[in-house]
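Structure request: Putative lipoate-protein ligase A, Drechslerella dactyloides.
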Amino acid sequence: MSPSRGLRPPRIVSAVLSRLQSRPQCRHHAVHAPRPLPTTTRNTNRAPGPADAPPITQLRLSPRRLHVYRSSSADPFFNLSVEDYLLRHSPADSTILFTYTNEPCVVIGRNQNPWAEINMPLLRHMQQTPETYVHFVRRRSGGGTVYHDLGNLCWSVVMPGKAFDRDKYAHVVVCALQSLGVRDAAVNERHDIVLRPDVSTDGKKVSGSAYKIIRERAYHHATLLLSSNLENVSKLLASPLRPFLETAGVASVRSSVTNIGVNKEQLIDAIEAEFLRTHEDSAGEVSRVTLDQEETLQVRTYIKEGMEELKSVKWLYSQTPRFTLTLPDKQPLPELHGQPSLTPALPEHARFILFAERGQIMNATVSTSPDPDFAFVQSHESHVRLLRTPFEGASIAATLAQVNSLDAAAAQPVTRWLEAAVGEWAGGEWNPNAIKDGQPTMRKRALRRLLRKDHYASKLSADKKKLELELQWRQGQLARRKRTTRKGADGKPLVRLVTPSLVRHVGATEFPRFRTRPVAARKYPGSPPDKPKSVKGKTAVKTKAATRDKPGASNES
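Returned structure:
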């Protein structure tokens, strides 16, 4: 019957009810109720959160899995740092479209050699005035060297690692271009976007792609030439040192380029519309965000530290893979920008070889004498003085001037040419281990977490190996016990073959049951004797125990 009819509830029920009533209320009782999602429309301008909160702070808290980001800044260091932040701090199942425009800059891949890709004398000349200033940037992804300016549109898609595809979002951009009337846009076999009027031709390149993949996330970013200064592209990407360098880094593939000639804002809208059309079946709403540089840097230290790293000398030059510079003899060196008359040539039998790694000279062979013995002395002295010298024009020239054994008349013109061709290093200092405001940098803390994970992983691996060795030893002991086990008269072993500790290590499936020492039945006076067993028609000999326990029997053998 129901207690509502005046009957007392059962004793157990009343005890449970009284216990529940006396229990203190849970502080987090609200988590049991369904959490209401923020009421946003498909065309919202900000992610859910306080109205005055910067939009970048709501990325990880947003219940939506589609995000459309725009950057109002033209700083290439800021935009690339935001891209890295979106890659490493966005939810693992989210997909983000990020569009931005950079100031004039030359961007090389992470594994490229700047002296093999960039015309350094021209770059330093353009950096002397603010009107023609061009940044030098090394991005965090691979790929070749590209030129950015305000007539260039950069787009990036951050996605889950399992959904990574080199052509998927390139086709999205092609569909957006075709919707604006660019009918001959296509994706070639190198995953780049080209304008191909005829199928039989390779076409002219309008977009170059690069990629980065980490554990659970990846991004595909690329450029679009809308109205760029193509003259700067051809001049800045023609290095005078390229014929003399052998590098272990990635070399850029030279292609003919052209401008598309469409409106930038219309193209951004078309790309966003095509991006949303591609993900129309995805659950959740879309977040539209416009990032402001000053506001973002105030709340995201990771992006600020990323900018400091990208601007540092250590990142720009010391990340260069190993390479070898070899200048030929009896051959005039190419003309440099601003110094048309400086085309020296090494004398016959002269040698000029520099091997550098991580931006430092690790081996050098410089000699001008035709005599082999004296050339060896020159090479040895130049190697000792140039060892660990930064691969910088002024440093190399100053060090070679101290080599007394070299012929000054033959070496000085080549040294001046090399100083102008290599150029000076320009950048700031960056130390990821530095303590700022009493706290280590975010990258230092991230490194500590990685080291801690590696320590736990190595410790777990060592424990696992130790357990495997112990298991092998126990299995060997088990095999030896099986061979040397004493057996009783009934043929059963008299020792325990399997121990509980061994079962815990190996698993109960290996040993379905325990076989332990059999306990002999006690014989009391008057108990019936054991029945003799018949073995092949003969009566088995009685055991000593049975004879000893028989009343009136003798114990003599």
